[in-house]
Amino acid sequence: xxxxxxxxxxxxxxxxxxxxxxxxxxxxxxxxxxxxxxxxxxxxxxxxxxxxxxxxxxxxxxxxxxxxxxxxxxxxxxxxxxxxxxxxxxxxxxxxxxxxxxxxxxxxxxxxxxxxxxxxxxxxxxxxxxxxxxxxxxxxxxxxxxxxxxxxxxxxxxxxxxxxxxxxxxxxxxxxxxx
Length: 179
Hints:
Elements: E1 13-14, E2 17-20, H1 27-35, H2 51-64, E3 70-77, E4 80-88, E5 96-103, H3 112-124, E6 132-137, H4 142-150, E7 154-165, E8 168-178
Parallel strand pairs: 5-6
Antiparallel strand pairs: 1-2, 2-3, 3-4, 4-5, 6-8, 7-8
């Protein structure tokens, strides 16, 4: 395994949002996100997780950078974790960083996702090899589309049956930015 790119010395930030590492205190956030019917379908967090499952999920997030997978961040607003965002590097050899994000239902519609996207985008351009950032969004997800567009991402087209979500191949809109 090659050495992962370094963790940022200064936490990426934009607007009210600071992106920080996961801590044990983020078990609360994992429990909140696990109550959302959609969030568990798109990642490794179980639906309606037990405290132990939430703790295990936080530990997995804490190990992802050292494993070379990417940069998992908590979206933090004034000391409270309101969501997660990650820059994933599985396509780094192609010059591509992939961003995924989710905001707890109690904190949606406040601009936190777009601020987090702006923060992680600025950070992504400092990661050696990242020349393009991609987001995959289901066409029905208007909130995520608005956040991506507000953060300067452009719709690059529909990818039919591109991603399996909840056991079903789903169409995804590809949003991207180029350095």
